[in-house]
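During the no-cost extension, the postdoctoral fellow (Dr. R.K.) reprocessed legacy sequence entries with the updated structure-token encoder. One reprocessed record is reproduced below for audit purposes.
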Amino acid sequence: MKKIFTLLLLLSFCLRPNVNVQAEEVRITYNKLHGIAYNMKLDGKYKSNTVTMFQMGNRIAYCIEPGVEITNNYYDIYTDWSTVKFSDDLKKYIEKVGYYGYEYPGHKTNYYYIAAQELIWKAVRPEIDVKWTTGENYTGKVIDVSKEKKEILDLVNNHDLTPSFSQQEFKGEVGTTMVLEDKNGVLDEYDISESQFHKIVKNGNKLEITLNEKVVPTEELILKRKHYDNAPLLVYSKGNSQKLSALRITYDKDTYVKVTNEEIPEIVEVPNTGSYDISLFVGTILVGVGFVLAKVY
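Re-encoded structure tokens follow.
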């Protein structure tokens, strides 16, 4: 009986909703970026040190609490933001900055890492002042990452754009081809679900839809944003130590386009049999089919 009770208790815990599942601890690895130093002013304090790229297991992480010291070598892993008191908008912004930072294809340079880190710091604490130099304490040459920051921000600002024709329904004649042009220029960033009825071809910035030759039910095609990998968001937390995060986007929502094919009815010209009053001239003229009847008063 005791074994049954223990089993039921374990099952009830496992099946509880909204339980934050915490993985085993991970050890932080410090990868020093020699020749790159941060110089930070925050809360009336000045700090400078060689930049560290933080690695948590096989993931690259960013500091998300500027000015807070790292006091632990081992961190608990969370798959959500439950340990961080940020607004939803701030979380979404930071996720995008990290996603388009160092790990984004073509961005794997130290400058992209520090550019993303600076954008995250300034999002969390806008009053922070950060300068990058080749030596600590403002020594050496100033490192300019304005190009990298602009590239990241351009990608961040365009991330939520959907194809201009999304969330609309388009109708066309059976057997014909409709061409939908994306005026937002983001179609290539989306995968399109396979159609059950029509031939769908993505041609650059245009979606070419060849409609079925028979009338079929209205179909909803799903547009899903592409990601460069399937890695999850991870947040690393331990007591009062600086929190870190391996950032990925968690809030993307699918969009759609609806397609309907229909038969266009044949247009038949119906003769005009209307009655027109021109009595001011001769009386009433009745227009028939191929002949005119005129009655003069």
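The chain has a mean pLDDT of 87. The helical segments are 2-14, 88-99, 110-124, 146-158. The remaining legacy entries will be reprocessed before the final report is submitted.
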